């Protein structure tokens, strides 16, 4: 087996949350900064922890910013859906004895309260949220925490060459690269690599299955 340990990002990777995330962030920025940023400009912050986004936008009210964004994100959760074939894919991977984990910038509340992710949760042994590390993507700490917990869970040393992180942003790539593991870019909308030097890229579940060499 090429990669026994598969680590997934959630937003933009397993679940199509782009509109939910971007539109809710647009509204939050408008409240705190009094201006409306274009969709594509706001998209650049997609997948980054909310308090870090506040800092990047030079908003000093980080906790209030994060709280409002979370509230507005939940309001727009009706726009969310799993990407085509993802739930069936996770079952295939699980049946093939892959160990599946999650490393996400979501808070634990956002993770646990998501009805779309709830349908997938059974397949994941470890889920790392933003509360589980003091540093976040693009730092390697979230992936390193996953590796530590997985090693403790199975009682084995994890070979980095046997791990693959699957995400959709430069932050995801940098996190995986700094942790010393390979990266596959989820490119569901066929935007291309977008300057991300990923080892692999796929735009549908069949392409990912080929990358993983699953018969």
Folded structure, characterized:
The chain is an alpha/beta fold and 215 residues long. Helix content is 43%, strand content 13%. It is built from ten helices and eight strands. The chain has helices at residues 18-33, 39-43, 50-56, 62-75, 86-95, 108-112, 115-118, 141-154, 170-179, 205-211; strands spanning 5-8, 15-16, 81-82, 99-103, 126-128, 163-167, 182-186, 200-202. The strands form two sheets. It has a six-stranded parallel beta sheet, sandwiched between helices. The protein has a two-stranded antiparallel ribbon with strand order 2-3. The radius of gyration is 17 Å and the shape is globular.
Structural features:
215 residues, two-stranded antiparallel ribbon, alpha/beta, 43% helix, 10 helices, 6-stranded parallel sheet
Strand and helix map with partners:
Blueprint: E1 5-8, E2 15-16, H1 18-33, H2 39-43, H3 50-56, H4 62-75, E3 81-82, H5 86-95, E4 99-103, H6 108-112, H7 115-118, E5 126-128, H8 141-154, E6 163-167, H9 170-179, E7 182-186, E8 200-202, H10 205-211
């Amino acid at each position: 087996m090429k990669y026994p340990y598969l680590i997934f990002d959630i937003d933009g990777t397993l679940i199509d949350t782009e509109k939910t995330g971007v539109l809710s962030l647009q509204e939050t920025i408008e409240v705190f900064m009094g201006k409306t940023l274009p969709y594509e400009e706001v998209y650049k912050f997609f997948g980054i922890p909310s308090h870090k986004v506040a800092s990047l936008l030079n908003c000093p009210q980080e906790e209030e910013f994060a709280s409002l964004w979370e509230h507005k994100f939940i309001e727009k959760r009706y726009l969310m859906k799993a990407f085509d074939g993802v739930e069936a894919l996770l079952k295939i991977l699980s049946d093939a004895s892959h160990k599946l984990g999650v490393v996400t910038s979501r808070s634990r509340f956002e993770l646990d309260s998501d009805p779309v992710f709830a349908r997938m949760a059974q397949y994941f042994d470890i889920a790392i949220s933003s509360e589980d590390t003091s540093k976040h993507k693009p730092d390697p700490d979230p992936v390193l925490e996953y590796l530590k917990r997985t090693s403790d869970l199975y009682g084995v040393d994890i070979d980095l060459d046997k791990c693959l992180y699957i995400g959709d942003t430069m932050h995801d790539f940098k996190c995986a690269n700094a942790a010393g593991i390979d990266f596959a870019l989820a490119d569901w909308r066929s935007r291309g690599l977008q300057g991300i030097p990923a080892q692999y890229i796929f735009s549908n579940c069949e392409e990912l299955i080929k990358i993983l060499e699953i018969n």
